[in-house]
Amino acid sequence: MNAVPAAAALLAVRRLKVHYKLPAALPWGRPGWLKAVDGVDFNLAPGETLGIVGESGCGKSTLARALAGLQAVTSGGIEFAGRNITRLDENGWRPLRREIQMVFQDPLASLDPRMTIGASIAEPLEALYPEIGRAERASRVLAMLEKVGLSASLVNRYPHEFSGGQCQRVGIARALVVRPRVLICDEPVSALDVSIQAQIVNLLADLQAESGLSMIFIAHDLAVVRHISRRVMVMYLGKVMEQATREALFASPVHPYTRALLAAVPGTGVHRQPLEGEIPSPADPPQGCVFVTRCPIADTHCVRHPPTLVRAVHGGFSACHFTAAVSAA
Ligand SMILES: Nc1ncnc2c1ncn2[C@@H]1O[C@H](COP(=O)(O)OP(=O)(O)OP(=O)(O)O)[C@@H](O)[C@H]1O
């Protein structure tokens, strides 16, 4: 189920599953499986920003790592520019790292404390474009620093001399210096002060608009993805609950989970029922609809039958047996 036609997609994800093997509870028992990502489908168009939201543990980081080739996939497929990249080894991924880059959640931890920020930004260029000479590399690093809003005069400083927001600017520079076509941002602002978050989101939006790259922007907070995403995908327990354009999702959400998430976002209008109860363990998810234990409108059918994503009235998709009824309400 996709809003972007497959032929137009730069990145196409099909029924993607990433299941982690868990040790058996007893020495003679069978190992269990934790379904971190459990059948995710979406297409990303060139130049598009897709926001992915959901509570902690719903599989966002696992999905991000699988898309960036940092996590083995259990089943399903990932295509980049029409090429199947699901099961490439490190050698196969090497040229692709020029095309698909990632920005991580913890900016300080993702930088080597012994390297100057200039050397950190130069590192991926050196590894992925060995044909680029030293002078050209240095000039690209300085230009990149300025692009992310840091003075070129800071090139010989070390990460500990920078604030969290500045370190994240360096992380963004490191990812973009190789001029990728897809940037995957995994909770890029959640470790930062609220006052700095908007600056980094705006920087990413400006860089995206300038370069035309495709972006996946992951956050646990709908308010954060709101400003940057053209489309938003809502995940819960490894599955897609709803997918729609930003306007449709915020104005007329269809899935009860999205409605509950929106209840916590200031300024989203209609008062909606907030989310209650704990998220079940992905090692032991509900049998039918995974949201059934917290859903205000679930009935006995939902307990036994998992819903599939179906077209909703807002033009997007929703995985709820009541999609048509809720849309009409
Ligand atoms: N290497 C692993 N082995 C086993 N389980 C894992 C592993 N990595 C993640 N998990 C589990 O998979 C589930 C999904 O984790 P993931 O980090 O992808 O979710 P998330 O939505 O990004 O959450 P958060 O925002 O807290 O990072 C969680 O239950 C997590 O504990």
Automatic annotation (TrEMBL):
Belongs to the ABC transporter superfamily. InterPro entries: AAA+_ATPase (IPR003593), ABC_transp_ATP-bind (IPR050319), ABC_transporter-like_ATP-bd (IPR003439), ABC_transporter-like_CS (IPR017871), Oligopep_ABC_C (IPR013563), P-loop_NTPase (IPR027417). Keywords: ATP-binding, Nucleotide-binding, Transport. This is Oligopeptide transport system ATP-binding protein. It comes from Panacagrimonas perspica. The keyword Transport applies. NCBIfam families: oligo_HPY (TIGR01727). SUPFAM superfamilies: P-loop containing nucleoside triphosphate hydrolases. It comes from the Bacteria.
